[in-house]
Amino acid sequence: MGAPQAVALPQQQAAQQPAAATRELVKVYGSGEAAVRALDGVSVQFGRAQFTAIMGASVLASRR
Questions:
Q1: What is the DSSP letter of 19?
Q2: 42, β-bridge pairs
Q3: Which contacts of 22-27 are long-range, i.e. CB under 8 A and separated by 24 or more positions?
Q4: Is the pTM of this model over 0.90?
Q5: Which of 41, 33, 36, 39 lies closest to 56, judged by CA?
Q6: Contact 47, 15 (CB under 8 A)
Q7: Which of 4, 14, 23, 27 would give a disulfide with 38, using CB separation of 3.0 to 4.6 Å?
Q8: Helical spans, DSSP H, in 1-64
Q9: CA nearest 20: which of 40, 57, 49?
Q10: Whole-number Å distance between alpha carbons of 6 and 3
Q11: Contacts for 54 with CB less than 8 Å, ≥ 6 apart
Q12: What does the pLDDT read at residue 3?
């Protein structure tokens, strides 16, 4: 008889899944030579019951 195996309960499996996730996200504003790649291959996941903040310059701040 082998060692006992750990079995994940449905609640544990749900807690291990991210609340939201994206892979290789791309966002381009404009086109041609004026195109600006705001996001280029961004992958991220957000865990359940966690606080996450994303910060960066605003569009208004970049136009001053």
A1: S
A2: 25
A3: none
A4: no
A5: 39
A6: no
A7: 27
A8: 10-16, 59-62
A9: 49
A10: 10
A11: none
A12: 66
Per-residue pLDDT of 4-58, as tens digits, reads 676 666 666 666 788 899 999 999 999 999 999 988 999 999 988 888 888 887 7
Which two structure tokens, joined as six digits, stand for 42?
Answer: 């961004």
Reading the block at residue 15, the tokens are 């807690």
Reading the block at residue 45, the tokens are: 């996941």
In our burial notation (b when 16+ CB lie closer than 10 A, e otherwise), range 11-27 reads eeeeeeeeeeeeeeeee
Q: In DSSP terms, which residues pair with 21 in a beta bridge?
A: 45
| 28: enclosing H helix or E strand | strand 20-29
Give me the count of residues in the chain. 64
Q: Encoding tokens for residue 40?
A: 């280029």
